Amino acid sequence: MKPVSFSWHLFDQIPIIGIMRNIPVDSISEVASVFADEGLTNLEITLNSNNAIELITKLSARFKGHINVGAGTVCSSLELDLALSAGAAFIVTPIVNEEIIQKCVLKGIPVFPGAYTPTEIYRANSLGASMVKVFPASTLGPKYIKELLGPFPHFKLLPTGGISLENMGDFMKAGAKGVGIGSHLFPREIIQQERWEDLRKIFANARDVFSDKEGL
């Protein structure tokens, strides 16, 4: 299967990447459906999840044109090839892996490598990263994002790690172009108990943070 085209229009509507890691396989379809119903537009399936490649294949085909479905925790060239063969529309890495970044650039696939220090972030950007995942963002806080954009005003930063509905607005106000949210968006207990209406409220609240663009 060829990679599904990434839509920046979809991304910019609600610049939240929902990070799915080890969500029960029999719940994935329902979770993704509620996610799409509430207008959220970007899903990352981490490759260290059970049946990750199969899930990327199914979700990218099912939600084509409605959700950007990508692969996360991509750490090697082999994993990259598997993810792209499954139809991943974008790639997220936890580190600055030059080979992965360069291959994505050559193929025209958006890649969001993880970086922490100004040197790493600068290097990732220089290699052609579409956005740089600043990770772990909770350790650094929104002020770090704002300070980075002093010398690097044109960098597109995607803070991830410890981002919640309560603090993501602060990161956006600091200049982030998007955020990655995992467990705060997909609470394990709610999903295990199949409390879909409670999950719907969480997704709606996340969406509503971006309903008032002037408030960000």
Describe the model:
By secondary structure, the chain is of the alpha/beta class. The chain has one domain: TIM Barrel (Alpha-Beta Barrel), CATH 3.20.20. The chain has eleven helices and eight strands. Strand 4, helix 5 (98-107) and strand 5 form a beta-alpha-beta unit. The protein is globular and about 45 Å long. The model has no long low-confidence stretch (mean pLDDT 95).
Write the layout of secondary structure elements.
Layout (H helix, E strand, L loop, with lengths): L7 H6 L2 E5 L4 H13 L4 E5 L5 H11 L5 E5 L4 H9 L5 E2 L5 H10 L3 E2 L1 E2 L2 H9 L6 E2 L2 H4 L1 H7 L19 H6 L5 E3 L6 H5 L3 H13 L8
Parallel strand pairs: 1-2, 1-8, 2-3, 4-5, 6-7
Helix pairs in contact: 2-11
Short synopsis of the structure:
The protein is an alpha/beta fold. It has helices at residues 8-13, 25-37, 52-62, 77-85, 98-107, 118-126, 137-140, 142-148, 168-173, 188-192, 196-208, and strands spanning 16-20, 42-46, 68-72, 91-92, 111-112, 114-115, 133-134, 179-181. The protein has one domain: TIM Barrel (Alpha-Beta Barrel), CATH 3.20.20.
